């Protein structure tokens, strides 16, 4: 995962000098752009560091090695819902909520209620009913 | 895979707070005399205590994550035997500390409104409530996430990696919100 990490960490070496040059060119009096550029560096550092940290933990994956075979990556990748209605209901809740902000505040309460139902439904989808474990 | 997605999303959250910080510094540069009079009304020791509460909640959250990684949801000893606490007990403590933080912040807001800093009073009021308020909403969202994760751990007969992953990514979010608060606290209460 070294390559992925350095793709993100590369941003650090671009945004930090850019931020310093930007700050120097504006006499350190224009904080918005400088701050945004420094925080972009922090953003790339965050993802890059996490990937680097994970690569140390998991070691070289088959796709990191020249002699890697496709079958080595077989097995469980993660838990994915084969089908789920909850994202649709959650997005409907959010849409109704925003509609409420636009047309009338009382609509917002309906959206909020729908959002709570969808959120609980989604989080507990694989913890209850047929999936209880 | 869930955790990588969470970190990428948190990186985008960082840019959201970057916009708020940029707003703070722009208005601060535009009206320094307003900053001098308005920041004098802040209660710094009070906010410092609140900051310590939030930082300690990050530690209790991390101890809960260690228990989740050990796949230990519930305590096996007495209530005050901290060594034998499971993930649920540590997360409940985290939720309590986080709730104290939000409540104290709400109390601080009422104090500041009484001193004449409201969201609509001036530019300082706007940025103060926008920055700390959005952070407070993030904390409140984190508390809801913790409670959902606690619920998952409680209804699972077999606490496995599915439950542990949820606990770990919620802890990432909590640490992020904590770090953002430390930056906000340093800027609003110390740098002024």
UniProtKB/TrEMBL annotation, chain A:
Translocase listed as a keyword: yes
A UniProt-annotated Pfam family: Cyt_c_ox_IV
E.C. number: 7.1.1.9
Membrane topology: Multi-pass membrane protein
Keywords: Cell membrane, Membrane, Oxidoreductase, Translocase, Transmembrane, Transmembrane helix
GO molecular function: cytochrome-c oxidase activity; oxidoreductase activity
Subcellular location as annotated: Cell membrane
Catalytic activity of the protein: 4 Fe(II)-[cytochrome c] + O2 + 8 H(+)(in) = 4 Fe(III)-[cytochrome c] + 2 H2O + 4 H(+)(out)
Gene Ontology cellular component list: plasma membrane
TM stretches of this protein: 7-25, 31-52, 73-99, 105-124
GO biological process: electron transport chain
Predominant cellular place of this UniProt entry's protein: membrane
DNA damage keyword on record: no
Family statement: Belongs to the cytochrome c oxidase bacterial subunit CtaF family.
Biological role: Part of cytochrome c oxidase, its function is unknown.
Subunit (UniProt): Associates with subunits I, II and III to form cytochrome c oxidase.
Protein name, UniProt field: Cytochrome c oxidase polypeptide 4
Origin organism lineage: Bacteria, Bacillati, Actinomycetota, Actinomycetes, Micrococcales
TrEMBL record, chain B:
Phylogenetic lineage: Bacteria, Bacillati, Actinomycetota, Actinomycetes, Micrococcales
CDD domains reported for this sequence: Heme_Cu_Oxidase_III_like
Pfam family of the protein (one): COX3
Name by which UniProt lists this protein: cytochrome-c oxidase
Localisation: Cell membrane
Predominant location category: membrane
GO biological-process terms attached to the record: aerobic electron transport chain
Family: Belongs to the cytochrome c oxidase subunit 3 family.
